[in-house]
Amino acid sequence: MILDLDIGNTLSKWRLKDADSSEIRSRGAVWTREEWRPGADIPDLDVVESVRISSVARKAVLAQTVALLRDRVGAVHVARSVPEALGVTNGYEEPGRLGVDRWMGVLAGYQLAGGCCSVDCGSAITMDFVLPGGRHLGGYILPGLRLMKESLKLGTRNVAIDPDSEADELLEPGVRTVEAVNHGIYMAAVSAVNRVYSEVCDQQGVALPLLVTGGDARVVSRGIQAPHAIWPDMVYGGLEACFPLTAAERAGRMSGAPTVPRPVTLEKIRAGLAFSMLL
Questions:
Q1: Residue 80 marked in a binding site
Q2: What are the positions of the active site (predicted)?
């Protein structure tokens, strides 16, 4: 078995993948912590042959995790943000300072769609752009839905936005404080994603495919106007592309990769931008 780990600042997601069939056998999540110990909430390491890790947690958390796994597992692969990989040139002035989860998303998106915009809706909402030739432009970091709600300190943080809510409903004025907060932060998030995507496509003269991942991907995606695909395993896809361990991965097939929708034309993007500026 292959254990894939996506260690975030608050949540660590994992999945077990069959090394022979490339099938996903199980998956789960635990709270990120300083001391990562085997228990009921993590997979049985006795069946694991190799581990791949993407981590944005503190260095101490990653070091402790790697030490534990290397004591139990034969091969441990740790992803790093580097100046160039898999045909993509990192757009950061200091490439190592780009969050590795963002870098994994960029690499996965490029392998799947060529140039693209990758959007990760987690604690923060990140947007990264890579052009068809492989030049990563850099990106944007916005506060995520939960972070925006916590910043308001109005006692509504524990009432989450229903991911099955329709976008039209979430964009209406709230008639209770919790609704006003939820609808306000939703409006801020989706408006920012829509505007940033359109502005960058306009500036670069290219209509890019758009891929969305992260814990709040389902709800945010309902308000994204451009054609897009949700890819829950996009960070894992980057790990597969960087460290291919199965026959399917070596052939370039990434687990759970969606069908990429054709983007609208650049002319329509520019017309939408022009209209919004008149309002």
A1: no
A2: 101
